[in-house]
Amino acid sequence: MSEAPLLEVTDLVKHFPIKSGILIDREVDQVRAVDGISFSIPRGQTLGLVGESGSGKSTACRAVLQLIKPTSGSVRFEGQEIAGLSRRQMRPLRRQMQMIFQDPYASLNPRKRVGQIVGDPLKRQKVASGSDLRKRVQELLERVGLASEHYNRFPHEFSGGQRQRIGIARALALQPKLVIADEPVSALDVSIQAQIINLLDDLQDEFGLTYLFVAHDIGVVRHISDRIAVMHNGKIVEHGTADQVCEHPADDYTKQLLAAVPIPDPRESRERRQGAGAAG
Amino acid sequence: MAIDPQPEALAAGGPDAAFPPAPEGVSGERGPWYLAYKRFIRNRLAVAFLILFFLIIVFVLAAPLWANNVAHTGPNQSHTLEKLHVNGEVHEVVTPEGRPIGPQWFGAGGKFFLGADSRLGRDEMVRLMYGGRTSLFIGVVSGLITTIAAVILGLLAGYYKGWVDAIIARTLDILWSLPVLLFGIALGVSLAVGGLKIGPLTIEGGSIWIPIFVISIFTVPYIARPIRGEVLALGEKEFVEAAIAQGAGSLRVMFGEILPNLASTIIVFFALNIANNMLFEAALSFLGAGVQPPNSSWGTMISIGEELLTTQPLLAIIPGVMILMTVLSLNIVGDGLRDALDPRSKVRLEARAGMVEREGASV
Ligand SMILES: Nc1ncnc2c1ncn2[C@@H]1O[C@H](COP(=O)(O)OP(=O)(O)OP(=O)(O)O)[C@@H](O)[C@H]1O
Ligand SMILES: [Mg+2]
Asked: B41: part of which helix (H) or strand (E)?
């Protein structure tokens, strides 16, 4: 590892205050959504971030991208510290890091056409305009498995899987280096999940993308991740190569996650459950 | 490192088989607006009242035509001492006892179609048309001012939250809790007497801009509060975050991402607000705090007509019916628009009401 990692996160913390009070808000407690996590992702690789619902995965993604201000900790992108940068300071960097959102329904503006949704980042960052813009957007749509005629449609005309493809096209429009995919398939049917994961995998090879790939199901990230980090209650409880984590889990929580993965072979499934039960 | 948990699914037909293009004949341009239009057109009642509203607009716009070509008089022209020839008979426009002539329909060639008003023997029909212009103008213009101000305030409060929201929301609460009519009357009367001077802007005492401003200010909370609630909810949506993740600034997010989603709320509230403002104007004018003489509005006409309610009831009833029809049509059209633009609005409105209550309790 001679080259510096594309993304390096150190001791990242995000606490949400719980306020109460009648006239003046008093901070009575904190939700420790992300409680000191560290990881790094080398260029071109994929880190799978796994954890149950509420373990702080989405909060971690947002804090990395500075969509919410981290409470403390460091986020280095290409060696540059971005934690605590203002929205204005972040703007030029946004091109290089994009996010695919968890909810394909809430993440597309229902009042905008697909062409605008995918094309706006290009226009906003002054990458393309006019007929050039339209051509680029249509190429992107085709690349993610949609048709160029979908340009003028509204999001409500699409299925969940198609919507997630629109979200992927939007994230790729600016040709980012880092893509943070926050449970990109958990809202989709199992049969469609595989297609989207394969698409993301192909796009990674084609554009040399670096992924932070979030899932609550360890089976989803197992095959595309180089390394896997397991998150529980805001902390990373296990971190290693994909094979290490899946074959020789050290942490009890990881074993539970592995036991929850649906396995086609009932015999193997039973054995696993017994194994996890014995360990826990 | 390629993964294929279910290779058959892909091999079977590729992405195109799994995501067939939308059914044939579905136009790519079929947006939410088109669907809303279709739903509105199916609502017979709302369409009928929309037509009625347009007829009222045509009626008041035709005022100069009627005045010049049929009645041959102006809205403020007095005919107290004149005599009128109707079917060979001669009538005084106002009798020496002060009793004005009743409706003549076309008996005098359209002159005094609805009779004369009590004090100055002015042509009631001409005044009704010009008064309608004033009433509608005040309703629409104050509706525009209110809506624009309310949308901006609601966007700022709901988007920035924190102290911006605290200031705006509290101010709106105060306005909301004032006895609006009393304050409107007090403000209207004092301004009507003294006029208004803000820097280079001077407004004469009798100007109709005074009731417009009074009405605009007091009705802002009625729109700003629901807009704020909606912006708070929309601000949590991931598409807002997505826009920020692409480098959109606050103004872009507010006006480019959130505002289009408020369009249906704005349109509905605008229609209802015009109706509301016209009632407000009528009340102010009736009480002498709105439109000042010699200008007429439906409210002032009711006020003047009321003096002869026992002998010439039509003088008060006709402008009253005009207000009623206009307000009713705006309300029904507004409800129709709401149903058409957002079929789930009833559920949402209830949810929103609950949310506002909870917020109010927590702050
Ligand atoms: N804006 C916020 N204010 C207060 N608490 C929050 C906020 N956002 C998240 N949390 C809390 O932080 C914790 C972690 O939430 P987060 O959304 O990061 O979980 P997640 O791992 O992404 O879960 P899921 O799989 O359901 O998406 C939760 O307990 C949540 O309630
Ligand atoms: Mg999440």
From this structure: helix B32-42
Contact call for A121 and B31, based on CB within 8 A: no
The closest CB to that of A192, out of B18, B32, B247, belongs to B18
User: Taking residues A141-170, what's their average pLDDT?
Assistant: 93
Provide the whole-model pTM: 0.84
Strand partners, A9: A39, A75
Helix, strand or coil, per DSSP, at residue B10: helix
- More confident of the two residues A191 and A143: A143
The answer, yes or no, to whether any atom of ligand 1 lies below 6 A from the CB of A57, is yes
- Strand A227-232 with A235-241, pairing: antiparallel
- Domain housing B244: 129-327
Residue B294, preceding peptide bond in cis (omega within 30° of 0): yes
Q: Is residue B303 part of a domain?
A: yes
Which two three-digit tokens encode residue A18? 């719980």
* Residue B19 in domain: no
pLDDT band at A23 (very low <50, low <70, confident <90, very high): low
Q: Domain tally for chain B? A: 1
Show which residues on chain B lie within 8 Å of chain A, measured between beta carbons: 1-6, 9-10, 15-16, 18-19, 21-22, 26, 28-32, 237-239, 241-250, 252, 256-257, 260-261, 263, 362
Cα B152 from Cα B148, distance rounded (Å): 6
Locate the chain B residue with the closest alpha carbon to A66: B245
What mean pLDDT, rounded, does chain B reach? 84
**CA quadruple A25, A29, A33, A34: dihedral positive or negative?**
positive
ipTM field:
0.89
Strand-pairing partners, residue A34, are: A14
Residues 6+ apart with CB under 8 A from B135: B278, B281, B282, B297, B298, B299, B322, B323, B326
Residues A157, A167: Cα–Cα separation, whole Å: 14
Q: Which of B53, B29, B50 is nearest to B41 (CA)?
A: B50
DSSP secondary structure of A179-212 = EEEESTTTTS-HHHHHHHHHHHHHHHHHHT-EEE
CB-nearest partner of A198 from B10, B32, B256: B10
Rg of chain A, C-alpha, whole Å: 20
Q: Residue type at B329?
A: S
Torsion of CA B84, B86, B88, B93, to 10 degrees: -30
Is residue B53 a part of any domain in this protein? no
User: Which CATH number fits the domain that encloses residue B218?
Assistant: 1.10.3720.10
- Per residue in B19-60, pLDDT (tens digit) is 444 443 344 456 778 888 999 999 999 999 999 999 999 999
Residue B58 burial (10 A CB sphere; 0-12, 13-18, 19+): exposed
| Ligand 1 neighbourhood includes A44 CB (under 6 angstroms) | no
pLDDT tens per residue, range B195-252: 888 878 888 878 889 899 989 999 999 999 999 999 999 999 999 999 999 999 999 9
DSSP β-bridge partners for residue A17? A30
Whether B59 is covered by a domain: the verdict is no
Rounded Cα distance, B80 and B122, in Å: 8
Interatomic CA distance for residues A144 and A179, integer angstroms: 15
Pairwise CA distance, residues B312 & B314, whole Å = 5
